[in-house]
Amino acid sequence: MLKEKSIYKDELPVNVVVANIEEYPIHFHDDMEVVYVLEGTVILRNGYYTYTLKQGDIFILNDREMHSFTNTGEKNMVMMLQLDLSYFSKYYDNLKNNFFVTDMDDDSDESLEILRNILARIMMEILQKGYGYEHKVIESTHNLIACLMSDFQYFVMEDGKFVNEAKNKGNKILAGRLNRITDYMYDNYSRKLTLNEIASREHLSIYYLSHVIKEATGLSFQDLLSFIRVEESEKLLLGTNKKIGAIAEETGFSAVRYYIKHFETWYGMHPLEYRKQFTGKVISRETAAKYTRSTPSEIEEAIRKQVKGVYTDYINKQKANPVIVNVNMQEEYTAAREMTWELKELMERENMKPMTGPYELLRSLGETIIAWGRNYIVTTASKYPGNLQNLSILVYNFSEVVEADLKSTNSKEVTYDIIKKYDEEMEFLIRCSGLSGEFKVSRYKMFQNKVISDLEDVVRPRAIYSRREELIRQWTSLPVIEFGQLTSSDTLSLRSTLKGFSAELLLVDKK
After folding, report:
1. Measured between alpha carbons, how far is 439 from 428 in angstroms, rounded to an integer?
2. Tens-digit pLDDT profile for residues 463-502
3. Which of 61, 242, 424, 448 could be a cystine partner for 500, CB 3.0 to 4.6 Å?
4. Helix (H) or strand (E) holding 439
5. Are the C-beta atoms of 343 and 505 separated by less than 8 Å?
6. Type and span of the H or E element at 405
7. Residues 116-127: pLDDT tens digits?
8. Rounded distance between C-alpha atoms, residue 259 and residue 236, angstroms
């Protein structure tokens, strides 16, 4: 059993495993796999070649490439990112059977740093699982593919292995042509395939096509075709009991001796010797992968060391920057404004009715708006500007992504799902300069669980609850009301923290 099936969860066309690998037997996937070493070293055997990957190295395993991992004796942490090609191939021509080569002389090359940055962002998004993280992971994966296509599909053969060739970088015509050629060769290697046939498809002369292949890969057309045939034969050698004569014929060689010759060129041994040496090292029920998954904290620490900027970005996002509202009581206010901005539009949508309590309370006051933003409104009943006796402050916790999602639907069911999944925290600090004295503060808080409870009654048939369940639901449906006092010499500061989709209305009155 050589083929290992990739499991994609949460409707994501991406699967990530980060682990300390002891031994991962020979196998292949239908999908592309990106290997990123976060710590230590690991031995990667890819077809005929063996690499020792060190911390910071990235290796691209193109679809259906045979590979295995072995421990070097020291602890490692390897990120294995699999991409569902049935999903991403809809967006990119010839993504299957493509060659992406990251083996570079300078492992600090800017393009490799970009790859590390993107991979770290994908990993941190998956670890954090914030609201809308699926969208961010898919978006980052598109950027990953774009980077691979831009910088890592140019290669030559040196010392028996493919290495990245930077001189052709940016030659999209050459890259596109090479992709089509290799894709066609992989699809048709098992039959007689000639340079003339491909030249006709590409509308090129045989001489020019031969030059293009040699220039782009360092191999002649026939050598490249033989490489593909030998590479594909490895699956038959290790995955079946077929005789090498049958394998040679099935992979397109006209005679067994040619198959043996080219196999020895690439793998350094006779096909039968290779079968004897590696058949017992193929992944199966008896020979399973041995690895220990890394914990989220271990992964975050490794990313912090490897890609400091990405780690800092996500830690700052976890500790979201506070929303700071500065209200200057002495500034001239030119005209009263009506509530016609985003919050009004959002709150008045039919599907948002269970969440409009604090908003409707504020609107019922009929006061003058003196400050507003995406997540807050500040009003007063006093003549403004002037000697203010009161303020009314409404703050809401919802992100731009949540706002866009809520605006795009009129479905109560979809609204319910959006609200239930959103659990980010937001801090507000409202600083009102020019206010001094003693103030009474009344707080009306509507938490996320009340919103969810109200929406459940709307979108689901009313269930029969036990007395205890009914009591809990009643508690849940009640807002929290608090009273307090504050003293200010010049600037009155009020703080609110909200988690999930929630809101707070603060009424500030001078004593």
Report:
1. 19
2. 667 788 778 777 777 778 889 888 877 788 888 888 888 8
3. 448
4. strand 437-446
5. no
6. helix 400-407
7. 989 999 998 898
8. 13
